[in-house]
Design goal:
This protein is mainly α. The chain has a single domain, classed as MetI-like fold. It contains twelve helices and no strands. α7 packs across α8. The chain is globular, with a radius of gyration of 22 Å.
């Protein structure tokens, strides 16, 4: 079985790493002289429009994760403890965005966003509200699996019997026990935000994916370098999640 496992890992590595190698090769190739150059990677910070798009997408990722966790974690805990009859309804609402194309979401929210733009201004950060909706299905599954793995009712009753309020029970007792699920939901949400193109493009905002497409029309290596950097960042997040989860299992 061990040779088979090694063979499968080699095939897995070739299947996923070869495209990354090809992207890295193209992003460092000097198309004029035929040598190697790091100009495309320097452009990630030298190009003002691209650097601004990177900062915008990272800010959107932070705001989206914060809003998603603040909305979803207390809601799911409260439903499991006090209103289990509403769990199916909450699950339906959270998974509903998977069945609705992003184009329909943009068209449906257009009138709502007129008020958002009027109140908050024409900032790309207002996409946070849409992105929270888009990441709900993935975040819900991660948090649901984490909550299902613990005895939530017993933990809550023990904390309450010792005099803890609901806020203390959630923050000091329940959240540490679902840390892996929270990290999983956060990292998946970050990956979704950094790769989302349709909503930002149709809304007219210059996020990282939109800017990558724009740059790709005139500067292929820089566009590929930005895409590769985004993929590497996503893989790094997944690696951190895997290490945290493995360490928690050993503990």
């Amino acid at each position: 079985m061990k040779p088979l496992r090694i063979l499968l890992w080699l095939l897995f590595g070739v299947f996923f790493l070869f495209p990354l190698y090809a992207m890295g090769d193209f992003a460092t190739r000097d198309l004029q002289s035929g040598g190697r150059t790091m100009a495309a990677w320097v452009n990630l910070f030298a190009d003002d429009a691209l650097f601004a798009a990177i900062l915008t997408s990272l800010s959107l990722a932070v705001l989206t994760v914060t809003a998603m966790l603040a909305l979803l974690v207390p809601t799911m805990i409260w439903v499991r403890l006090r209103a289990p009859w509403a769990s199916r309804f909450i699950e339906f609402l959270c998974l509903l965005p998977l069945t609705i194309p992003a184009l329909v979401v943009v068209v449906g929210l257009r009138n709502v966003y007129l008020w958002v733009t009027y109140l908050l201004g024409e900032s790309a950060l207002t996409l946070t509200f849409v992105y929270v909706v888009l990441v709900l299905p993935f975040a819900y599954r991660a948090l649901d699996a984490a909550l299902s793995a613990i005895d939530l009712q017993t933990l809550a009753e023990a904390a309450r019997s010792l005099g803890a309020g609901w806020a203390s029970t959630i923050v000091a007792v329940i959240v540490p026990n679902i840390r892996a699920g929270i990290l999983s939901a956060a990292f998946i949400s970050i990956a979704v935000v950094l790769g989302e193109y349709t909503v930002a493009s149709l809304s007219g905002f210059q996020t990282l994916p939109v800017q990558i497409v724009e740059i790709g029309k005139s500067d292929g290596p820089t566009s590929v370098a930005a895409s590769l950097a985004t993929l590497i960042f996503g893989f790094a997040l997944l690696l951190v999640l895997s290490m945290v989860t493995r360490r928690r299992r050993r503990a």
